[in-house]
Amino acid sequence: MAGRSGAGGKPVETRILPGDEPASIAEAAAAIRAGDPVAFPTETVYGLGADALDPRAVARVFEAKERPRFDPLIVHVADADAVGRYAIHEDAADPRVAALAALFWPGPLTLVLRRREVIPGIVTAGLDTVALRVPAHPVALALLAAAGVPVAAPSANRFGRVSPTRAAHVVCQLDGRVGIVLDGGPCRVGVESTVLLLAGGRAVLLRPGGLPVEAIEEAIGPVERPAHDAPDAASLSPGRGASHYAPGAALRLVEPWPGPGLVTAAGERVGLLAADAAGRAAAEAVGGPFVATEVLSPGGDVMEAAARLFDALHRLDAAGLDRIVAQPVPDEGMGRAIMDRLRRAARR
Ligand code: AMP
Ligand code: MG
Q1: In terms of Cα–Cα distance, which of 336, 81, 77 is closest to 216?
Q2: For 304, which DSSP code?
Q3: String of b and e for 228-249 (b: at least 16 CB within 10 Å)?
Q4: Which residue's CA is the closest to the ligand 1 atom numbered 11?
Q5: CA-CA distance, 326 to 303, in Å (whole number)?
Q6: Which atom of ligand 1 is nearest to the CA of 129?
């Protein structure tokens, strides 16, 4: 479809630039400073970033993604010093912030703190909090350093669709809507950051993600974990209520595995998303045939499974399927992030 990310709504030419070349970083940083959104790699997923202090640049990110304005963006910063510039003193001085930053930044942890006025309301969807993260990817860090501004960036996909973990995924969804896509290879973590609210003394898990909540609790003690569809979670973290990560074909989590949902009708094009080799064998023993099969981690390594999840969904998406059947993983540690994404992909 024709793009609408160019200034004035005109389509732009989308170019993939090698992220490891200084000239690409310089060009992308100049684009950010000029108010043009840029797609860039992080260790979690690819982001579509704009100068977080420029409301018009941020508006173009919402427009390119067709993201509803009630869904706030994460602000990416170069180092933990930035917390004091964008969060109120009381939250920035919370010793838990320093402890978590020292342990997990750069990394897949986003901290939601009460914001200072300098952060425009469009970034936070009007909330009085701001989400901050230092990403652990050399290309992202080089871009942040060269741009010299905080970069507000949601995942670089159309709203509600599968998040991108490769530059090619970004082009599939945002061609004509973004000028520069920095290529940093496949994302190492592969699912979005863990989002943690630390305000007014509370600690609330708003989104399970690339850093297991168990690791956070080891550092700062118990974290409130609202049930994945609790009203408290939805009001504290807008955008979490919607269907998300959805491939074109309906996805169904088959619990328990293997189950009757794996039986296919004659002529039906069904894709299999197995967590491991044993899960695949079990599914093929009771169901199928499957016209496309993805095994997230043959040996059942949950980190590998997370890293490959969105890539597998993109491939299944391209296979022209009637439906996808997905195997659950244990809902703990990194598996919590995988199950969260699968449940949301199944909701439509
Ligand atoms: P994305 O960048 O697409 O991974 O989405 C960012 C998500 O972070 C949002 O959908 C919210 O769930 C969460 N988030 C960002 N900013 C805030 C905030 N100020 N308060 C609560 N949640 C936030
Ligand atoms: Mg997203």
Answers
A1: 336
A2: H
A3: beeeebeebbbbbbbebbbbeb
A4: 237
A5: 17
A6: 19
Which domains does the chain carry? 7-236 (3.90.870.10), 250-345 (3.40.50.11030)
Residue 314: both structure tokens together: 């993109």
What's the gap in Å between 106 CA and the centre of ligand 1?
A: 18
From the CA of 47, which ligand is nearest?
1
Mutate to test the pocket of ligand 1, among 46, 207, 235, 243 (most ligand atoms within 8 A of CB): 207
Structure tokens at 91: 């939250």
Ligand found nearest the CA of 75? 1
Instruction: Please list the pLDDT of the chain residue by residue as tens digits (348 residues).
Output: 334 445 556 789 999 999 999 999 999 999 999 999 999 999 999 999 999 999 999 999 999 999 999 999 999 999 999 999 999 999 999 999 999 999 999 999 999 999 999 999 999 999 999 999 999 999 999 999 999 999 999 999 999 899 999 999 999 999 999 999 999 999 999 999 999 999 888 999 999 999 999 999 999 999 999 876 676 666 777 777 666 778 889 999 999 999 999 999 999 999 999 999 999 999 999 999 999 999 999 999 999 999 999 999 999 999 999 999 999 999 999 999 999 999 999 986
